[in-house]
Design brief:
- This protein is of the alpha+beta class.
- Among the domains are: 96 residues, Beta-Lactamase, CATH 3.30.450.20; 143 residues, PHY domain (Beta-Lactamase, 2-Layer Sandwich); 147 residues, Histidine kinase-like ATPase, C-terminal domain (Heat Shock Protein 90, 2-Layer Sandwich), CATH 3.30.565.
- The protein is 39% helix and 22% strand.
- The strands form seven sheets. It has a seven-stranded antiparallel beta sheet, with helices on one face. Strands 9-8-7-15-14-10 form a six-stranded antiparallel beta sheet, sandwiched between helices. Strands 17-16-20-19-18 form a five-stranded antiparallel beta sheet.
- Helix 3 packs antiparallel against helix 4, helix 15 packs across helix 17 and helix 17 packs antiparallel against helix 18.
- It is elongated.
- It starts with 24 loop residues before the first strand and ends in a 7-residue tail after the last strand.
């Protein structure tokens, strides 16, 4: 929206929306001329006749050559070739000289004109800047640098108070350095709210660089006509060195009893880092060249600030790189990611300055130092899921602001730097920081709320008395280089994981090849032994039937042992063939009636006849199981026959077969009250030819290996709960079928 009048009502409520870049008023220490593209005068400040012997009505619409000398016109035409903003030239008129400071507005030329500096010595200026740069180079750190800059600027400009004012992430300001007259109270260390320098003012500082108010109490001159004839609106004055100030700002300065100011932007990485803020307690004009000196010094300061920070950051980066290298060396030694970052002298905690380090990986939660419980860490990860899906890293120095439920723990865990490791939302590395209590001294209270309650006009605060606020539940901020170190560390971890995956993949392929060869060999051996074994069994049977009468007891027993051994060998080969053949069998899945399968197994194996003392209960409501019928039958058969066998020698043997639901899965179980076994062997028993009881109970040692392989082929899982003398419960599930 184009404005043709400046708002008449301004207060603190609307100051951020105030169009201060369009203020149609200028300060009295200079005058303004606005030219159209043909160099005709279309606007002037109404104080022009104080500087030039002209009348406003006479100069408007006339060519600029009517009020300046030919040399000035030549300089203007030269400037218009490039139109570099704020590059000055000398404006001569009727024997008077002024410093013209032009900038372009579309096709127009806007000129600020100030009395020329009679005491300006360019050679002395160059030498002064060289000396200043040398002095700034001697600063060892940021604190020394800011202090030195404040002192040098006070000497250069002569203001009563010179401050280096730094913004935080919320645009609150802190006086980090100060040079002042001895009788003035120190403001160093004071904090000021963001509203003291609103966003619209910060934007103009960033664009213009340096600005003065030479006399706060002086009235302003108007730009006439108010509406620019070309734009049909107020002319933009944001780049004007003479631009007047907002009534709100003038009121603020009057409340501070400040009569003149100079402010210069300190720009770092193209962002407004802070300001050089100069106060004087009487009217004070500083010419354009000295103001540019201040701007140049601000750039020198910014460059030195970058250099000092870069050196410090490079040292920190180098330290973190060395730490990362040691951590990766630990991890790569045994391919154990968690142990590698937690179990050595150098841990993940040493990578970043923190109070605690935690890692969640592969369903394991390990910590070093001061960290929350696993449940708290996992809840944080769950609630950060959305943020981490967009940006893998999360950093906060006040967790309670994002997670109110953390308030009871906020003193212990105020800061969190969290970085996802992989695709799994729960896998991450986390660094924690405790609360760092701080007492912040503010330069006066903001009475905005009091004024609202009293229905008063919202005006700038009148009190600048110091008051102290205690900050709670806030940690030291996470620096950019620390977040970069976390990201680089996670990249290293991912590289290790990928390398490990490649190594595991290679070994898996070797293992698959060996398994295929072993299965082929097992099948071949078992098949080839069938013939000789049948011969041994056949001849032993003939000897027993035809020659038993001629043999003594020892001979008869020997033949019986041969026959029994042949039967045992035959069963073993059946099991080996079953086990080795599973890998090549295609799974044809369908829903099977689990209860009916179990009942048929008991009948077909004549288990009730073999174990008459055993009580069996099969859950009536057991749901159907989705899988290959033959394999599922063998799975239940091996588990049920084992249950009968290993419970047969206890009093009142009992077997229970059933199911239950957990985590959207149907878990089937076969439970007995038999001899059980030591839980430390619960994984070992699924190995081929593994038997915990070799003499008391018959068996080949292959049955449970077959069970496990069948379950793996159905993307399931099996586990056992057992104690010695208290039986065993085998639990398993298969992948859900359609509709489950």
């Amino acid at each position: 929206m184009q404005l043709t009048r400046y708002p008449s009502k301004t207060d603190l409520e609307t100051c951020e929306q105030e169009p201060i870049h369009l203020i149609p008023k200028i300060q009295q220490h200079g005058f303004v001329i606005v030219l159209d593209k043909e160099d005709k005068i279309i606007q002037v400040s109404d104080n022009i006749n104080r500087f030039l012997e002209v009348e406003i009505d006479a100069v408007l619409s006339s060519h600029i050559e009517t009020i300046c000398e030919p040399s000035t016109l030549s300089l203007l035409q030269e400037w218009k070739k490039n139109k570099r903003s704020h590059v000055p030239f000398t404006f001569s008129s009727s024997g008077k000289e002024f410093t013209a400071i032009p900038h372009a507005i579309e096709d127009m030329t806007y000129m600020d004109l100030e009395p020329i500096a009679s005491d300006w010595d360019s050679f002395a200026f160059q030498q002064e800047m060289l000396d200043t740069l040398k002095q700034l180079n001697t600063a060892n750190n940021e604190s020394e640098l800011t202090g030195m800059a404040a002192t040098l600027l006070k000497e250069l400009l002569g203001y009563d108070r010179v401050m280096i004012y730094q913004f935080d992430e919320n645009w609150n300001g802190t006086v980090v350095a100060e040079s002042k007259e001895d009788h003035l109270e120190s403001w160093k260390g004071l904090h000021y709210p963001a509203g003291d320098i609103p966003a619209n003012a910060r934007k103009l500082f960033l664009e213009q660089g340096v600005r003065i108010l030479s006399d706060v109490s002086s009235t302003y001159s108007d730009i006439v006509p108010t509406v620019n004839p070309v734009l049909k609106s107020l002319v933009p004055t944001g780049q004007s060195h003479l631009r007047g100030s907002s009534p709100i700002h003038i009121e603020y300065l009057n409340n501070m009893k400040v009569a003149a100011t100079l402010n210069c932007a300190i720009v770092k990485d193209e962002q407004l880092w802070g300001l050089i803020a100069c106060h004087h307690y009487s009217a004070k004009f500083v010419n354009f060249h000295k103001r540019k000196s201040c701007q140049l010094l601000a750039e020198m300061f910014s460059n030195q600030l970058t250099v000092k920070n870069t050196k410090w950051v490079l040292k920190k980066v180098n330290d973190s790189t060395n730490t990362r290298a040691k951590l990766i060396k630990h991890i790569s030694k045994n391919w154990d990611l968690v142990a590698g970052v937690c179990d050595h002298k150098i841990t993940g905690k040493d990578l970043i300055n923190c109070d605690g380090f935690a890692i969640i990986y592969n369903n394991e939660y390990r910590t070093v130092g001061h960290c929350p419980t696993r449940s708290v860490a996992e809840q944080l990860m769950n609630e950060l899921e959305h943020q981490l899906s967009k940006k893998r890293c999360y950093a906060s120095n006040s967790l309670v602001k994002d997670f109110e439920w953390m308030e009871p723990l906020a003193a212990d865990f105020s800061g969190l730097l969290c970085h996802k490791i992989g695709v799994d939302d729960q896998e991450a590395v986390m660094w924690f920081r405790k609360e760092q209590r701080a007492h912040v001294t503010w330069g006066g209270k903001n009475d905005k709320q009091d004024q609202k309650e009293k229905s008063e006009r919202l005006s700038p605060r009148k009190s600048f008395e110091k008051w102290t606020e205690e900050l709670r539940y806030t940690s030291v901020e996470w620096q950019d280089f620390e977040q970069a170190a976390a990201s680089a560390f996670v990249d290293d971890l991912q590289s290790v994981i990928v390398s490990r995956y490649g190594e595991v993949n290679r070994l898996n392929k070797q293992l698959e090849s060996l398994n295929q060869e072993l299965e082929s060999f097992s099948y071949s051996v078992s098949h080839d032994l069938r013939g000789p074994l049948r011969g041994i069994d056949g001849f032993a049977q003939i000897l027993m039937e035809d020659y038993a009468d001629t043999l003594d007891e020892y001979g008869k027993n020997s033949i019986k042992i041969i026959i029994q051994s042949a039967e045992k060998m035959n069963r073993l080969m059946d099991d080996i063939l079953s086990y080795s053949g599973l890998s090549s069998v295609e799974v044809i899945s369908d829903y099977q009636d689990a209860a009916s399968l179990c009942e048929s197994i008991i009948v077909e194996h004549r288990l009730k006849e073999k174990y008459p003392n055993t009580t069996v209960s099969i859950q009536d409501s057991m749901p159907s199981i989705y899988g290959d019928k033959t394999m599922v039958l063998q799975l239940f058969s091996n588990l049920i026959t084992n249950a009968f066998k290993y419970s047969s020698k206890v009093d009142h043997p009992k077997i229970e077969i059933g199911s239950y639901n957990k985590d959207d899965k149907t878990i089937y179980y076969v439970k007995d009250n038999g001899i059980g076994f030591d839980p430390q062997y619960q994984d070992k028993i699924f190995g081929v030819f593994t038997r915990l009881f070799t003499t008391e109970y018959e068996g080949s040692g292959v049955g449970l290996a077959i069970v496990q392989r069948i379950i793996f082929k159905h993307d399931g899982k099996i586990w056992v709960i057992t104690e010695v003398g208290k039986g065993a419960t085998f639990n398993f599930y298969l992948a859900n079928g359609p509709g489950q």
